[in-house]
Design goal:
mainly alpha; 4 helices; about 0% strand
Length: about 80
C-alpha cells in the first residue's frame, strides 16, 4: 500500500468520524476532546521525537526553511 493511499484512507476515516461526532451531544464531544488532550500530553515526548525525525527527513528532501518551521512541533506549539 502506498503512502498516498494510506493518507487517503486516513482522510476518509476522519471525514466519517467527523460526521459521527457532529451528531453527538456537546458533553460527549467535550469529554472526547479532554481525553485526546490527555493522550497528547502523555505521549508528547514520542510525538516530538517522531516530529524531529520527520523534520530531519524533510530538510534532507529539500523542504524549505519556512515549511520546516511550520511543521516543527515544540513545547510552545
Amino acid at each position: 500500500m502506498s503512502v498516498e493511499s494510506i493518507v487517503i484512507d486516513m482522510a476518509r476515516a476522519a471525514k466519517t468520524a467527523s460526521r459521527e461526532m457532529a451528531r453527538c451531544q456537546t458533553s460527549l464531544k467535550n469529554a472526547m476532546l479532554l481525553k485526546l488532550a490527555e493522550l497528547i500530553r502523555e505521549n508528547a515526548a514520542i510525538i516530538q521525537q517522531e516530529n524531529f525525525r520527520d523534520v530531519v527527513e524533510g530538510k534532507k528532501s529539500g523542504l524549505s526553511a519556512a515549511m520546516t518551521d511550520r511543521l516543527t512541533i515544540t513545547d510552545a506549539t
